[in-house]
Amino acid sequence: MPRPTSAAPQSSPDTPDVSRRTMLRGAGLLGMGMTFGLSGLLSACGVAADDDQDSGGAQKGGTLTMAIDGTSAVNDPAFYTTLGDWMAVDCICRGLTFISFEDNTPQPDLAESWEISDDQLTYTFKLRSGVTFHDGTTFTSADVLASLGRQFDEKDKTLPDGASRPLNSLGANVKSLKAKDDLTVVMVLLKPDRTVLSRLSDIGGRIISSAALKEKGADIGKGLVGTGPFKFVSSTSGQSVVLEAFDGFRLGRPPIDRLVLQQVTDPSTIVSSLISGDISATQFTPYSSLASLAKNDAVTVYDTSLGFDAIMMVDARRIPELEVRQAINLAVDRNAIVSQAFFGKGQTPDGYTIPPSQNGYDASLKDLSTQDMAKAKELLKAAGAAGRTVKLMAASDSWHPKAAQIVEQNLTDLGLKVEVDSVDPATYFGRVIDPDDDYHDLMIWERNSYVPDPDNMIGAMAKPSGVYGDFATGFASLKGADAFENDLYEAKNLPDGAERTARYTEIQRRWAEKYMVLVMLGYSTNPVVSGSGVKGFNSNALGNHRCFMEKASV
């Protein structure tokens, strides 16, 4: 999650992961209010590919231009500003492990292999030999210690001001991190954590050249050096990040010569530029345009997996009666939200917080997210809350306004008076974590699958000490909430399979039925569209805001 604002609670282990998409997408906090005019840059760099083709049939050369939400010109695994900046990190650096999002299992990347002790406390990583950084230095255990060590230590001198350190909670559980030799790293935990390999695949776990860190220090984000398929060329705040193919990438040089991540904030410009070819690909396509784009031969609309939760958080400090929170949940018309806010690019929730793309998904939880207006009215009347005023806020972009409109009508039909505030995306997160905000009763938001594991979904949202459980919903203040801390810890440490799924199912049902501080609105995906001539990139990953372009061609 994004953390450029001092308002963000840095002590919370979940802070770096909370709905990154909605945080600074509007870019106002960074002074990036401009709408990009594509013609100038693209006439200079072009998007046409050379005629060369490799033996696999992919065209070589050319520039692939991606529309992004924004850029602060700071690309640092320890510092979140915009999704675009972290997409650049994804392209420049690689981690010890890798998750493709076509499969949720962590695979070896810069770590060739690993061994885990029987007590699940000691991880011994065997590193790949002969891997080269963009600065020409050779990858060794020193780079792992420097890259992860700065995430684990809030006083590390290479951290920029406001660093979010998305691996800080992992670091709090690390007893020691040492190099056995140049190609062996040993991590010893205080308590078992079966999500370590998955979490090391996230953007915060990307490895930086220790030589570059020593040279640039806290300014590393202005010239990031990794081992990834693309190396940094230039960046301009509010405009673009320019990368070029790295000849020495260990999996082979990418087919394209150049990758441009270009800030485009106007939805109509995104659509017209996809059709014209000025934009090669993006996951920021407006939902309202998907049907028409699907009929246009100039573009390809991808059927990506449903990886994020559309949610409405309920502040139990503002709405203290469980019956009223339950009535609100029962009043919501999810079918209308999926069809009208997401234009059919989604699904009504039946597995509660764990979406269909993840292990642990269980459709037996469907009853937790069904509409029953008659029962909702009974609950509201019994609580003596008919006619009460509730306040609702939602970001002013993407699917959020329409969802807010539908919820407003649903709750009016229920018998509540609803006041709605539409909030600029750049300031929305600051208001979500402010329990004193005037509109903190109900908050529409989303949770993305940056690490495709239930611990990243229900594990973050039902954790009483996290952003959702504390600042947003006040769940931590409710009787019995503290037990979920241990319950979620035990669940994440079960091996994937029926027992783990059953445990998460039990936790979700108990959390919903006894507390109902989170109303599920639907499952969806960030809509990926590319030009019809763009081939080979991982669209499923891009639907989760992960940027794997090493095989893409134009």
Descriptive key words:
19 helices, globular, 554 residues, alpha+beta
Tell me about this structure.
Mean pLDDT is 90; it is low at 1-56. This protein has helices spanning 20-23, 38-45, 83-92, 141-152, 168-171, 196-199, 210-216, 267-276, 290-294, 322-331, 334-341, 373-382, 400-414, 425-432, 458-461, 467-472, 483-492, 498-514, 539-542, and strands at 63-68, 97-98, 107-108, 111-116, 122-127, 174-181, 184-189, 230-236, 240-245, 258-263, 281-282, 299-301, 308-314, 346-347, 389-395, 417-423, 442-447, 518-524, 529-531. The two termini are 31 Å apart. It is 28% helix and 18% strand. With 554 residues, it is an alpha+beta fold. It is built from 19 helices and 19 strands. Helix 10 (322-331) packs antiparallel against helix 12 and helix 11 (334-341) runs antiparallel to helix 13 (400-414). Strands 14-18-13-17-15-16 form a 6-stranded mixed sheet. The protein has a 4-stranded mixed sheet with strand order 1-10-9-8, with helices on one face. The radius of gyration is 23 Å and the shape is globular. It comes from Kineosporia mesophila. Residues 1-20 are annotated as: Disordered.
Strand content: 15-25%
Which structural category do the helix and sheet elements fall into? alpha+beta
Span between termini: 31 Å
Could you estimate the helical fraction of the residues in percent?
25-40%
Shape: globular
Question: How many distinct beta strands?
Answer: 19
User: What does the radius of gyration come to?
Assistant: 23 Å
In terms of quaternary structure, the protein is single chain
Low-pLDDT runs = 1-56
